[in-house]
Amino acid sequence: MIDVVGLRALRSVAALGSLVRAADQLGFTASAVSQQIKRLERQLGVPVLSPAGRGVVLTPAGQALVDRAPEVFQALERCADAAQSVADGAPRGVIRVVAFSTAVRGLLAPALPRLSSNCPDLRPRITEQDPEEALHSVDAGTADLALVHDADGLPTALPPSLVQRHVHTDVGDVVMHRTHPLARCDAPLAETDLASHSWVTSPPGTVCHQWFRRLFAQAPEEPDVRHLIDDFATQLSLVSSGEVIALVPRLARPPLGAELVARPLRRQPKREVHAAWRRSADTSPAIRALLAELGFPESEERR
To answer: What angle do CA 51, 57, 62 make, to 5 degrees?
Structure first.
């Protein structure tokens, strides 16, 4: 009998390229992952990893094993779903969710009280991860459901073993102090309205920074960026000074209070948010329950 733990470890090493990264992803030490794979090799009677410089590579036998691994995990998942269905399909146990930070704040946190009330035997466990890492976690079986966003308008590549559903469209607004001149504008703001003002923005490499750069793509001069801050609550504390304005996604926005106001843009920047899970878990009562609390009933057709 093949050791499932060792097989999962080997699959993670193959996907991530090293024992250390696989150990971090699986929650073990590198030594423990190495031992799991050695136990797998003893069971099979063939090596599945070979040294390569300071790292390792799959042997042909190891690659063949990894290629067939999804079938094993899908079969095990179907067995678990069948057992849950026998118990009237009631959502129970732990559902492991991975999501980017603003989805945790804007989508998951509001849904948790409803989930707790409607499914008292279901315990969500949430870990913050960027979209690419989150999809790998679901694909590798260390998470059950991921919330991911597209990257600057480009959909995140989805492994063939996963299925996804659109759950939300997030848009960005300009936030300012209520005494700021733009606060008096009733109509959506155009790019030309923003050119002469000072900003706090997200750092380069983030989706929100790309949104900001696109606002000024046709501007004759560079915008006056005073601060680069990754945390949106900190951005808003600087906006409260009245000296800068900020472009903030609605999912990331805490209550603005009396001092701040948000104004929409004429061309709203947006990103699409999807939930993703393994095809083999498509009938999971836990996943269906969480999707329902996110606003999507079981009867809705899945894409």
So the answer is: 115
Strands 260-263 and 122-128 come out as unpaired
Spatial distance between the Cα atoms of 301 and 8, rounded to a whole number of angstroms: 31
**For 11-62, what is each residue's pLDDT tens digit?**
888 888 888 888 888 888 888 888 889 888 888 888 988 887 777 888 988 8
The 10s digit of each residue's pLDDT in 148-196 is: 998 666 677 788 889 999 999 999 999 999 999 999 888 999 888 888 8
For residue 300, CA distances in Å to 33, 143, 165, 303 come to 40, 23, 10, 10
Q: Report helix, strand or coil for 190.
A: coil
Q: Output the pLDDT for position 153.
A: 64
Is residue 35 within 8 Å of 28, Cβ to Cβ?
Answer: no
Structure tokens at 136: 């790998």
Cα–Cα distance measured from residue 14 to residue 18, given in angstroms and rounded to the nearest whole number: 8
CA–CA distances in Å: residue 64 to residues 3, 11, 12, 46, 80: 16, 11, 14, 12, 25
DSSP 199-248: EEEPPTTSHHHHHHHHHTTT-SS--EEEEE-S-HHHHHHHHTTTS-EEEE
Angle of helix 30-44 relative to helix 4-16, nearest 10 degrees, comes to 120
Question: CA 187, CA 266: separation in Å to the nearest integer?
Answer: 8
Asked which of 69-78, 140-149, 176-185 is least confident by mean pLDDT, the reply is 69-78
3-state secondary structure at position 41? helix
For the chain, the 3-state helix, strand and coil shares in percent, each to the nearest 5, are 45, 25, 30
